[in-house]
Each structure stands twice: as structure tokens, then as C-alpha cells.
Design goal:
30% of the residues lie in helices and 25% in strands. The protein contains eight helices and twelve strands. Helix 1 (44-62) crosses helix 2 (70-92).
Length: 311
């Protein structure tokens, strides 16, 4: 396999960053994932971190060097993530569990397999044209599908931020699987959170993403979305890959010489901005530290119990 990749995340005007993202690859398979912790629920960043860590850990164990059934892997692992988040709630006596969206993709044998829960998206571009995009599990998308609103009404609708499907919710998630899609040399996949796509149209995203090499254009895309978001924006995260040999001569990631049992995982580091104060003067609570996050995941969220005071 050969591919060029870029991942990045911006806190934006929010008091802390609840997005998490990573990619992992073996000799013959590549997995990418983005999770957006839901800010209306306590510790969404923990649910997002748990989702990314469980998914990459499982990929490292099972991609030897490829997965026997990528769709089954995605369905089983995402279901297990939801159950683990619910276990957090039960073990800590929480009124509700932390919640997160998730979009993930696996490429092997030049085919891509996609799964998503919520409104984090995947875009598939070929020859600068958008040939596929996941459909949000959101209230406005459902209303559009039923013909009750028009597309131009979606970004201004009062329920535009509401989703009906997530990990950690009261009901088991509806995991949407795309089946499998052909990947061709030069194809670009973009995974992103709603902080990106609410700031720009699909056409604007596609144009920006094809302006230069993917690792340069994706970074500029983050800059543009952050500037457009201003004070009303969200955390903004994306993960972009261009499949095959780049035409500009840039050196891609090549897995040809990797040992059969080896895997590499690159998690996007979370940059902690200085503590912010909200409009009411209350100091914003920052993300848990990485050490606290790991401990929370390892022993069913001891950090959550500590942060909530045992309630």
C-alpha cells in the first residue's frame, strides 16, 4: 500500500477539545477514525478517546496483516465501544453515559469499508469530484429525507445540532455500514467532525482539499474552517488520505517492507489551550490529561468518578 496522509485538530472557540482521531496501518490494511465527544454530556472527550483507543487496539491485534472481514470488524468493535461506555455509566452511578459520534474507514485490497454513527462525516473524492458522502444521523437530515425541510434550511434550523444516533446513548447505536467501495490511485478520503462541514459547503471543502498536495491542502482547510467558525465555531478535526503514489513526486507512506505482524498507529495529539473563562465568568474545565485518560479507560473511568465527586 502507498498513501499520503494528514490529520489535525483545532480547539476553535470552545473551552476544550473533545475530538479524537487516529490512523493505524499494517502491511496490507489501513484504518482511519474520528470521534467527536458530545459537548452537551459530561466527559464527551472520554467517550471519544475510548472509541479511538479501542478501535485502534483491536485493529493492531486483528490486522495480521489484513482483516478477515472489515465490515464485521467495524460492526463488532463499534458495538463493543458502546457497551464499554455504558459500563462506565453503570460502574460510576452516572445519570447518563458520556457520548460520542464516530466515523471510521478501513482500506485493504484497494477497497474501502466505511462505518459511522452520528454526524461526523466521510467524503470520497475522485478526479476532484465528490462520489460519496456519509449521511448524517441528525434531526435535520431526517427532516430533509422526509421532505419536511429544504437543503438550504438545514444550517439555520433550530434543531441543526441535534443527532438521534450516537455511542453511549440510551439506545444501542444504529451502525451504518457502507458496504465496500473501490479505491483508485489519486482518490482522496476525508474524515471530519461537524466543526468543519458546518463552516463550509461540500463544494468548498472539495475545492480546498484539491488545492495542492493533500498534506498541505488539508492543513489549509483546517485554517479556513477555523477562520470561518469565529466565535460560533466548534472543535474542528479532519483526517485526509490520498491513495497511491502522489503525482507531485512527494514521498508517500509505503507499507511494502513492513513485517507481516507489524502495525503502526498515529494518534493526533490533543493540544491543551490555556484555561478559558465562559461568558458567565465560570472557569472552563479542561480536558483530562492523557495519563488520567489512560487510567480512566484501563479501570473503567476512575478519573470520571474523581471528577464527578463520586456522584
Amino acid at each position: 500500500m502507498k498513501f499520503t496522509v494528514y490529520q489535525g485538530s483545532r480547539q476553535g472557540p470552545r473551552p476544550y477539545n473533545q475530538d479524537r482521531l487516529a490512523y493505524s496501518y499494517s502491511k496490507d490494511a489501513l484504518m482511519m477514525a474520528i470521534a467527536d465527544g458530545m459537548g452537551g454530556h459530561r466527559h464527551g472527550e472520554v467517550a471519544a478517546q475510548l472509541a479511538i483507543k479501542m478501535l485502534t487496539d483491536a485493529f493492531q491485534k486483528q490486522a495480521t496483516p489484513e482483516l478477515s472481514n472489515p465490515n464485521r470488524f467495524l460492526n463488532e468493535q463499534i458495538t463493543e465501544i458502546h457497551e464499554s461506555i455504558d459500563e462506565i455509566r453503570r460502574n460510576n452511578g452516572l445519570m447518563e453515559a458520556p457520548r460520542t459520534t464516530l466515523v471510521a474507514a478501513i482500506i485493504q485490497r484497494d477497497m474501502v469499508y466505511i462505518a459511522h454513527v452520528g454526524d461526523s462525516r466521510l467524503y470520497h473524492f475522485r478526479n476532484k469530484e465528490l462520489i460519496y458522502r456519509t449521511q448524517d444521523h441528525s434531526v435535520v437530515q431526517m427532516l430533509l429525507r422526509k421532505g419536511q425541510i429544504k437543503k438550504e434550511d438545514m444550517l439555520e434550523h433550530p434543531d441543526r445540532h441535534k443527532i438521534y444516533n450516537c455511542l453511549g446513548g440510551d439506545k444501542p447505536p444504529q451502525i451504518e455500514l457502507s458496504g465496500k467501495r473501490k479505491m483508485m490511485d489519486g482518490d482522496i478520503l476525508l474524515l471530519c467532525t461537524d466543526g468543519l462541514w458546518t463552516a463550509m459547503t461540500d463544494s468548498e471543502i472539495g475545492q480546498s482539499l484539491h488545492y495542492g498536495t493533500v498534506n498541505v491542502s488539508a492543513a489549509r482547510l483546517l485554517d479556513k474552517a477555523e477562520a470561518l467558525g469565529k466565535q460560533d465555531g466548534d472543535n474542528i478535526s479532519l483526517l485526509a488520505i490520498q491513495w497511491g503514489d502522489p503525482q507531485n513526486g512527494e514521498e508517500p507512506v509505503s507499507t511494502g517492507t513492513m513485517p507481516l505482524g507489524a502495525t503502526t498507529t498515529i494518534m493526533n495529539p490533543v493540544i491543551h489551550e490555556p484555561t478559558m473563562r465562559l461568558d458567565n465568568g465560570v472557569e472552563a474545565v479542561p480536558d483530562l490529561s492523557e495519563d488520567e485518560m489512560e487510567k480512566a479507560i484501563a479501570d473503567i473511568q476512575a478519573a470520571i468518578h474523581k471528577t464527578t465527586g463520586g456522584k
